Amino acid sequence: MSASLLSGDPVRLILDTDMGNDCDDALALGMIHALENRGEVRLLAVTITKDNRDAATYIDVVNTFYGRPEIPIGVVRDGKTPQDAPMLKVPIKRRDAHGKFVYPRRVEGAQAPEAVELLTKILNEQPDGSVTIAQIGFSTNLARLVATEAGRALVAKKVKTLYLMAGNFQKPQPEYNVFTDGPAFADLMKNWPTPMVFSGFEIGLVITYPIESIERDFAWVANHPVVDAYKAYVGKEEDHPNWDSTAVLQAIRPERGYFNLSGPGTVELGEKNTTVFKPDAEGHCRYLVLKPEQVGAVRELIADLVSEPPQRNVMGAGVQRVVF
Fold it and tell me: Which of left, alpha, beta for 33 (phi over 0: left; psi -120 to 50: alpha)?
C-alpha cells in the first residue's frame, strides 16, 4: 500500500503524558485502549514528561493489562516533577498472596529510551501527514523535538494535528500543564508547525469522572490498574475532574461533535504563565468549547470507554520483563 491513508484507517496516535501527577492521565490511557479495541486508534508510543521512572513502569503495567505490552515508552531526562506518586507506586508495587506482582510488566522506568529519540524514531516510521499527537502533560518533550530545524521539518512532514490539554481559555489564570514548564510551552507555541487544538482547564473541570463508575463499572475484574491509580490519587469517594480524557477523545474522534471549536487564532504564553489566545484567520490554533447540554453525554461516554473490558487481556500470562 502507498503512503496515502484510507479514510477508515485507525488514528495513528502518540500520547505524551505527565503520568503520575493526576489520575486523569490513567483514565485517558484506559480510554485509548478501549478505542483501540474498536479499531479506531493505534497507539504508536507513549512518551512521558514527568521525570519519575515509576511513570514508565505504570504505563507498561496498563498497556500489558490491556494486552499491548509491545507499545514503546519514552521518558524525559532532566524534566519536571520528579516526586514520587502514590497513584503510580500503589499499582506497580502490589503483590498477591504468593509474593508475585499483581500486574505483570515488561519495562522498568530506568531502562526506557529517551522521549525525543523515541519520538523521532516513531515519526520517521510513519506515512507522511498521518500522525496525531495528544499532549496531556507538559510541553517539555515536544518543545525539545521542534527546537531544531530537523525536528520541525520532521513534525511538519509527519504530524497532522497536535491536541493539547493545556491552558485556560475562559479565565486569565495559569494552568498546571502550562506553568509547570512555561518556557517549554512558549517555545512550543513558537516552533510547532502543524494545527493545534486545545482542551482548556474549563473543559475537564466540568467533565468529571463519576465515582459511581469506579465503584460499579469495573466489577468484571478483581484488580484494575486504572482503578487503583484513581483511588490512590483521589483518596475519597467523589467525582474527579477529567481534563486529559477530553483532549484525547477529540484527538481520536474529532468529527463526532462532542465539543464545539473556537475560531482560528494563535496562542502565546502570557504574564504569570497564563494562556493568551488571539483570534487570527491565518492562525493554526483552536480550542474546545463546551455547551451545558454536551456535558452529560461526554461524561457518560468517557466513563463507558474507560471501564470497558480489554479484548486482549494477558493478566496472569507470565509476561517476562525485557531489558532494553
Answer: alpha
Q: Which of 26, 30, 41 minimizes the C-alpha distance to 67?
A: 30
Number of Cβ within a 10 Å radius of residue 295: 14
The residue ranking higher by pLDDT, 91 or 8, is: 91
For the question of whether the overall pTM of this predicted structure is more than 0.90, the answer is: yes
Tally of CB atoms within 10 A around 100: 12
Distance CA 238, CA 236 (A): 6
Task: Answer whether 54's CB lies under 8 Å from 89's CB.
Answer: yes
What is the rounded CA–CA span in Å between residue 134 and residue 113?
Answer: 19
Domain ranges of the chain: 11-306
CATH assignment of 11-306? 3.90.245.10
Three cell numbers written together for 220: 468484571
Which pLDDT tens digit goes with each residue over 206-222?
A: 999 999 999 999 999 99
Residue 20 has pLDDT above 70, yes or no: yes
For residues 120-129, one letter each, b for 16 or more C-beta atoms within 10 angstroms of the residue's C-beta and e for the rest, the string is bebbeebeee
